[in-house]
Amino acid sequence: MDLPSVGTLEALPALAHPDLVAGPVAAALVAWPHAAAVAVTPIDPDLADTAAFGEAYDVPAEASANCVVVAGRRDGEERIAACVVRADTRADVNGVVRRLLGVRKCSFLSMERAVAESGMEYGGITPVGLPETWRLFVDARVTRIDLAVVGSGLRRSKLVLPGALLGELPGAETVTDLAR
């Protein structure tokens, strides 16, 4: 099976390189039936942020997906969701996401909490291997990307996989117009 590749990235089989992904990502991949279609690629961690990454590795923004973590409260209960959107869009946090969570206001989860609770590095958080208690919203546009580039849980690598598979992650909810 050919590994997915985009831009100038070097595609390696993710299952064969658990050292290039965060622990929760490696565990999730082992349990996921679609993992054979997932590649991992090492990158310069100083170039992990979307704009710098795209320029350095010839990856267009519309082929990259970002994962942001938000939270809101209702009746004393905190509700957390990870939102996956194309890198050329922004999650509609206080519109669509707020309504999906059923809260009055959403805000981004603090960096410290996002890192501690996900077991991933800030700037590398990915929808693969997130805590089961978090909801996972995937913008429908992401599922239409031929090959999507997302975080690996570490800043020093990225995952590459068919965008449609992001909508097949455990617990994923595909949402039309999640992003603007």
From TrEMBL:
Q: Which Pfam families match?
A: tRNA_edit
Q: Name one GO molecular function term.
A: aminoacyl-tRNA deacylase activity
YbaK/aminoacyl-tRNA synthetase-associated domain location, by residue? Answer: 45-164
UniProt cross-references to InterPro entries, sorted A to Z: YbaK/aa-tRNA-synt-asso_dom_sf, YbaK/aa-tRNA-synth-assoc-dom
Q: In its UniProt entry, what is this protein called?
A: Cys-tRNA(Pro) deacylase, prolyl-tRNA editing enzyme YbaK/EbsC
What is the phylogenetic placement of the source species in the record? Bacteria, Bacillati, Actinomycetota, Actinomycetes, Propionibacteriales
